[in-house]
Structures are given as structure tokens and as C-alpha cells.
Amino acid sequence: MPPRGRGSSPPVVVSVGGSVFLSGEDDAKYLQELSDLLVRVGRSTPLVVTVGGGRTARAYIRLGRALGLTDVELDELGIDVTRIHARLLAGRIGLPTPSHPPASVREAVEAVRHASPVVLGGTEPGHTTDAVAALIAVRLRAARVVNATDVDGVYDADPRTTPGARRWERSSWPAFLRIVGATTSDAPGQRFPFDRLGAEALARAGIPLAVVAGRDLGNLEAAIGGRPFVGTLVSGQDGGPT
Ligand code: UTP
């Protein structure tokens, strides 16, 4: 981690969803611009970035399920895909980012003492890269976690399938946990606003979560920097929608 002298920023953790990482539209251009952003911000802010597996992970998980693999084996397939994505991003960024993604929360926390940004994928079966981001944030006492996703915030219903769904600009942790708890399952390859385990860890630690559209890079940079952004800010105990 860069020296934490006067004027240096507290760490920030970014979780880049796999569907944002590889959307099928101009992916190389997006990943180049994302890398440039992470390098620029990572110079002054100790930055850890987790990368998801998206539809590639889900395709392998679907195939593995059809072949009768166990849930743990399916999770391990997903982890391997996220680690390939992390390698892609780390390779584009170059030094000092480790090209071999840290394999655990502990390794990532150690790596960011010497290098920023640090990029990694999944770690253990049973959760997603959102949870990895959250657990690292708790260990680093991060200022915030930014979830760079394929939706521009948290909605009261799925905006891709429900016309008129409303975006929350802010949410308390209790209100957010109610949504996450109502919509999630721990089965491999599931989709939800933010991993339940990760959300619970952040809520307990009182670390804010910003949910933003990951392809809107100006907005993503604002959220990482703690400036006003378009999306949803989850923090605090009350005052949000219930
Ligand atoms: P993702 O983090 O990509 O989950 O991990 P996701 O919900 O599909 O997120 P998006 O779509 O990329 O945004 C893919 C799968 O890999 C396994 C889980 O099965 C997860 O659903 N995984 C990932 C783990 O078991 N442990 C990890 O630490 C990370």
C-alpha cells in the first residue's frame, strides 16, 4: 500500500461484475479505459478490485450442473473463470499490479501494502466476488466499496423486466439487507444486487456501498472518489426506504 502519510486516501475496494467486464460490446476498449482509470486512481488511493465471471462463469456452471458436478465443484469452476478475468485486467494494467491474482482475502490485503491497484477474482466456494470485495474492505477498514454493475443502482424491482421500477438514490443497510435477503440464494451462478454475505459484512462494519453502472466510467470514478454519483448509496441504520 502506498505510504499513508498526510493527504493520502483511505483504501477503496471495487467489485466489477462479470457482465460489465464482458458485455460483448467494445470490451477491449472498455477494459483499456477501465485499466487507465484504476491506475490513475490507484496512485493516490490504495485500491483493490475484484472481477466477476459473468455469463462465461454461468455457462460453465450450467454445463457442470448438467454433468452432475457438486455445488462446490460448480463454485470452483466459477472461481477459475473470475481468475481468468482478473488476469486479463491485471495483465493490461502491468506493474506494480501482481499479474498472478491473489488467491485469498489475506493475500490481497498483503499485496495492496506494496501495490495499487491489486486485481483478483474469487477465493473460496460459497459466495461471489462481491463477498470477496466486502471481506477485503472490512480487513482494510476501507472508506467504501463500489459495486460496478450492469444496472445503474438498486431498484425496487428488476428494471430489465419491470417497467416503472424505481431506483433508490440512498438506502439504509437494514432496508438493503431486506432486499438482498428476499432475492438471493446461495446456489452457484445466481444473480442479485450484492452478495448477501458481503452485504452483511459491510453492514456490520458500517462501510458504505455505492452501486453504479460500471460502464459509465466518469460516474464510476466519482463513486470511487467519494464524490456525488448517479446510482445508489447504501449506508447507515435508518433514513432509507423500508
Ligand atoms: P461472480 O462473482 O461472477 O458471481 O462469481 P455473479 O453473481 O455471477 O456476478 P456477476 O454476474 O459476474 O456480476 C461467479 C460464480 O463463481 C463462484 C460462485 O458460484 C459464483 O456464482 N464463486 C465466485 C465462488 O464460489 N467463490 C468466489 O469467491 C467467487
Count the E strands: 9
Main sheet: strands, sense, barrel: 7 strands, mixed
**Spans with pLDDT under 50 lasting ≥5 residues?**
2-7
Helix content: 40-55%
| Average pLDDT taken over every residue | 91
- H/E element sequence: EHHEHHHEHEEEEHHEHE
CATH superfamily: Acetylglutamate kinase-like
Overall CATH architecture: 3-Layer(aba) Sandwich
The third-level CATH topology is Carbamate kinase
Bound molecules: uridine 5'-triphosphate
Radius of gyration: 17 Å
Strand order of the largest sheet: 3-2-1-4-8-9-7
Taken from the alpha-carbon principal axes, the silhouette is globular
| Beginning-to-end CA distance, first to last residue | 38 Å
User: Please, how many domains?
Assistant: 1
Proportion in β-strands? 5-15%
Level-1 CATH class name: Alpha Beta
Structural class: alpha/beta
